[in-house]
Give the backbone structure.
Amino acid sequence: DIQMTQSPSSLSASVGDRVTITCRASQTISSFLNWYQQKPGKAPNLLIFAASNLQSGVPSRFSGSRSGTDFTLTISSLQPEDFATYYCQQSASTPHTFGRGTKLEIK
Amino acid sequence: QVQLVQSGAEVKKPGASVKVSCKASGYTFSSYGINWVRQAPGQGLEWVGWISVYNGDTNYAQKFQGRVTTTTDTSTSTAYMELRSLTSDDTAVYYCARDILFGRKGLDYWGQGTLVTVSS
């Protein structure tokens, strides 16, 4: 199975901050990497697919990038509604494994 | 609008089976796949498996092989996941989620989740 190492596991930040979350794949996955946001008690919400493609309806402050097997989710200017848990997921080969999540909290 | 509506919470005894349903609306059911993802209490997301509504092809995570079956009923636009031989480790919220191109464009719509509790 492909392992997705996500970091950090938690992060404290303030409204207006620029935040970066990283996922590293244990082997090459091309650009088959998706990012989700999950709020407590809710289903995940797709933010980015195929490493850098913004899902329809998602604010442009969210962006994704790839460098080899390293993937980054960037939030350019944190808004109050962005405090949540973020997950990466690879869809290159089954099982389509998720990272362990990054909990983004208010500083 | 696209919606996936799942069946209600279940409480099962160890060794029993559970079948969760996921009714789709607002799109052409057979044009997308359905994934099943679970989340144990306070834990992260775990991919369980996938079914092509178009041709019934399935793909399951190895840890669930032999214990899980996913099916669809195109006449009612409903997907099902059955998990057998339940243990307390199967206590989780189970989500269905739609995808196209076998997840290559992500899981873009999700059901509200179904809590399955396994307890003696």
About this structure: Chain B touches chain A at residues 35, 37, 44-47, 50, 59, 61-62, 95, 97, 102-108, 110-113 (CB under 8 Å). The two ends of chain B are 40 Å apart (CA to CA). The first strand of chain B starts at residue 3 and ends at 6. DSSP finds no helices and eleven strands in chain B.
